[in-house]
Amino acid sequence: xxxxxxxxxxxxxxxxxxxxxxxxxVYQRTCRNGLNGTPVYTTFVATGNVxxxxxxxxxxQAVSKMKLSGPEIASPRPAGSYVVGVPxxxxxxxSPTTYGPNTTSATASGVTVTAxxxxxxxxxxxxxxxxxxxxxxxxxxAATYGRQExxxxxxxxxxxxASQDGGKFAVTATATWPVNWQVNGDGEAGxxxxxxxxxxxxxxxxxxxxx
Length: 211
Hints:
It is built from one helix and 15 strands, in the order E-E-E-H-E-E-E-E-E-E-E-E-E-E-E-E. It is mainly β. It has two domains: about 50 residues, no CATH class; about 150 residues, no CATH class. The protein is elongated and about 90 Å long.
């Protein structure tokens, strides 16, 4: 958008009933949304200076419409049975709001930006002081795996949670959402990062040998 270098004469239809005496000016808006991306020109009247639209601000408006949330933790879950010395598998369920991909557009002052968000990394704080970084949703456990360690995202507890509040460890999963955005009909693009977090309370027990 830019102010016309040569303003139309007073009384022209371009003024839409307004006047330069009111402090108004005629601006031209250019959008490359014509056939095969050809530019389409329109005019509008505004009072004072029209600030340039920051496309990243518009992209963040698009993200707000996505309703992104923390990871949907499938394991470890509160009702699960976990034991010291036995590998714990961590994984999350994938949906547009909890993992992505999620694509949405937003428009402001004639500028439309499309943003796409998808989780690339989840950092697990296991509650016992350990931190595990997983570059993906993790692998769902199946009984056929026995006591194998997870090939993608796992942790083995070395002590019970008996001394913790409520007898459980607080497990926190923090997801990193890179957001890629692009102005529709334009080459301008960029990226920023969103962070979302979820938590579960997990009891870690200990096997007892009966003689």
